[in-house]
Design brief:
The chain is mostly helical. The chain contains 5 helices and no strands. Bound molecules: zinc ion.
Length: about 90
């Protein structure tokens, strides 16, 4: 039964995409994997979501590359915004 588990399967299903992308918080991942260990049907869903992604997520150390990517994107947006606000013909 799922009664003794901390999370129900619906919640796990909602977290599944984030989990496969490795974007769950560390505490959420712990709860997620704990549920998977005790719930065969959710374990199957995780496998269906992508063996490769899950394996990658397990191999990658607990860093936050997504934040770095985000910072890079914002930096680029800033640059583009500055270029667009400049007069088209500076000479
Ligand atoms: Zn479950």
């Amino acid at each position: 039964m799922v009664g003794r588990l901390m999370m129900d399967c619906t919640k796990i299903e909602q977290m599944l995409p984030a989990y496969t992308l490795g974007s769950l918080a560390e505490s959420e991942t712990a709860v997620f994997t704990a549920h998977i260990d005790g719930c065969a049907s959710c374990a199957v869903k995780v496998r269906e979501a992508g063996d490769t992604l899950v394996n990658l997520a397990r191999m990658v150390p607990q860093k936050h590359p997504s934040k770095r990517v985000k910072d890079g994107i914002f930096a680029r947006i800033d640059q583009v915004g500055q270029q667009e606000t400049q007069p088209p013909r500076p000479w």
